[in-house]
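DATA SHEET
Item: assembly model
Revision: 1
Owner: S.N.
Input lines:
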Amino acid sequence: MLNRKTAPGIIDAVDMKLQLKPCDHFILDNGVPVYSIDAGAQEVLLIEWVFYAGNWYEEKNIVAATTNFMLKNGTKQKNAFAINEYFEYYGAYLNRSCYNETAIITLHCLSKHLSELLPVVAELITESIFPAEELAIYKQNQKQRLEVNLKKCDFVANRLIDEYVYGFHHPYGRYTSTLDYEKLEREELDVFYKRFYTEGKCLVFVAGKPPADVELQLNKHFGHLPFHQNDIPQIDYKPKPAETKKYNIINDAEGVQGAIRIAREFPNRHHPDFAKAQVLNNIFGGFFGSRLMSNIREEKGYTYGIHSYMQNHIHESAWMISTEAGRDVCEATIAEVYKEMAILCNEPVEADELDLVRNYMIGSLLGDLDGPFQIIARWKNYILNNVTDEYFYNSIQTVRTITAEEIQALANKYLQPQEFYELLVI
Amino acid sequence: MIKYNRFVLDNGLRVLVHEDHSTPMAVVNIMYDVGARDENPDKTGFAHLFEHLMFGGSIHIPDYDEPLQRAGGENNAYTTNDLTNYYCQLPSENIETAFWLESDRMLSLAFGAKSLSVQKKVVIEEFKEHYINKPYGDVWHKMRELAYKVHPYRWMTIGKDLSHVENANMDDVKHFFFKHYRPVNAILVVAGNVELENVKQLSEKWFGNIPMGEKYNRNLPQEPAQTAARRSEVQANVPLDAFIKTWHMDARLEKGYYVADLATEILGGGGSSRLYQSLVKEKQLFSGIDCYHFGSVDKGLIAVEGKLVKGVSMQAAEKAVEEEIEKMQSTSVSVTELQKVKNKTESVIAFEDMGVMSRANSLAMYELLGDAELMNTELEKYHAVTTEEIQQYCTNVFSNENSNTLLYYAK
């Protein structure tokens, strides 16, 4: 007779051997470093060109984001339609995204088409012209999109909480108004583009099944571009956190839910507490079985989901709790978040729960390393944050060995309600 | 080419095994042949609410998530109008944990009152978050009701109304479970770092003695061909006017499905698509516009959806969309344009097939459609579509009497 009550034996994930596949590394003639992971069964390829061209380097709001967006909107040789048609004809996806420190061009394609696509990516980096008409369309449509987003409580809350933690002057705390679009000048894009793309600092990441001559191909198209690999301005922004800690905002008087954000500043991943606090965070609100989820969703049904996490920033970070809850239970939800903080401060985590979280974290890491795109994403994050694979192995060691006492001490150090900004947007 | 083995247990459970030893992980995916289309019109949203209840404890195991997490696993599930899918991934050494958990909840749920009352609240918050508290959140509620008069696609997976979820009771839950969540209505796919023989043994051990149940014979009212254009107007608290139009298209296994898929890609897929180039870039009537279809198993919908640039009249916007549609009907698309969307399809399939989880999900989906092998013949069907077929299809489908137009005005 089958015993369905007893769980089958398991091997603890913490005892499993985890390896981060090493990354191939070569340097193009002009000094551009290329990091590459050759893995996977499908003949597909991901290439990312990372530039130090995020909003950290702009002198005026949204210059960086607009320059990045408009890389596909016209070169000396091709208009926006021709560029899109070219990539799409080969079934390739060319995307761009702008972050705080970096801005990225991403190419997904079938490996067999790579040689047709690389010259046009190079053209975008050297010959973009930012046509005035394209800029006008972009401004108009972005302004409209912003108007729609401003109706959403979660969107408004995400902007404001960052402003409270970092200050509006800081690239992590800044956001966009419709006026910013109106003030934007085409020439500012030209200048930013030349400085931070054409003559900027570039890193390349490759993953999937690259052709045998990928190094030659990359060198041919990118190894002679006029990048200045060592000439990136050193800019320091100091966070200026807001003085008031609590905010209640009515964005939509008829709203049936409120967006809750509770956040405090937190050091970056070079700080010795960072890896340890990840374990505490998982217990607190980092996964489906976390205390916030178990209590506020699975026990009380106040929300569809509640999460806590550390923001993935390079310079400084924040510890954030985020949820959308029913309007009439927002206050109760906030009270429960602080209650869970207090329990973590006052009581050591029981061995059973800690074991579960250790296994979950290692198992989830194992799953995250599945496939070339995931592996290169981890390497990219390490390289941009200036850590090595030692960080990977140390973090695993931390998950395996951290004690309940250390976790409680960390809770007492960081999960102090008076240190948190609290925002409710209806 | 995706390789797999298939066998059927005595109780009718279909099992597919896809080995991939390049990963340390195993995926266990169970698809149940039940979706929102199988709901009673007075009790909509039930299939999705039920998905939540599947995590609220089974007959021998009080909590689904905890033992899985302890085994280093993660899981999730989704419900569509057509089907419900549960999937988990864990280190392959611990695969038996997934068999234990999934078989127990197929055997029987615990039917706890607490789980039902809490998950009703959770789903109500989900409903609010996605469909009430968001600008334009009710567009597809309204459009489905306009386009379907008979077929149960007329409501959304989340449900027609909050009250349907609020009123769900335990009898409904039990009845739904024993009608639909039986081995004979389910497909199990096991993929990743697994061995066929071991999967056979584990399947037999854990699922073999679950009572077969009755095969659910779907007998849904089919939507009659639409004979007159339908239009509806809404005034809502949103910043911009929006234009939404749909047409009925072929079912998932009909040839026309592939033609429709390529036609929507020509019209609305990406920066070089016709609607984007003409209406956003050249005429600047829309700030954004999309054309897509729902991928439904039964006859679905092709949709065009866009927000108007401020100051543009709805009439001008609609006329411009019609002109683009007429071009598809009067002039053949070029061979290059067709080749472009075929190339995109080839690449989408290659990228989808990268992850083991995604491959497992696709195998289950095609098995549900009737034959897992369809997964390996999909691309040929796209390649076979000709420019003449696209033109003919657009002429037939994009007719006025087959259309539903929703004019969504900012108050």
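QC remark: DSSP finds 15 helices and eleven strands in chain B.
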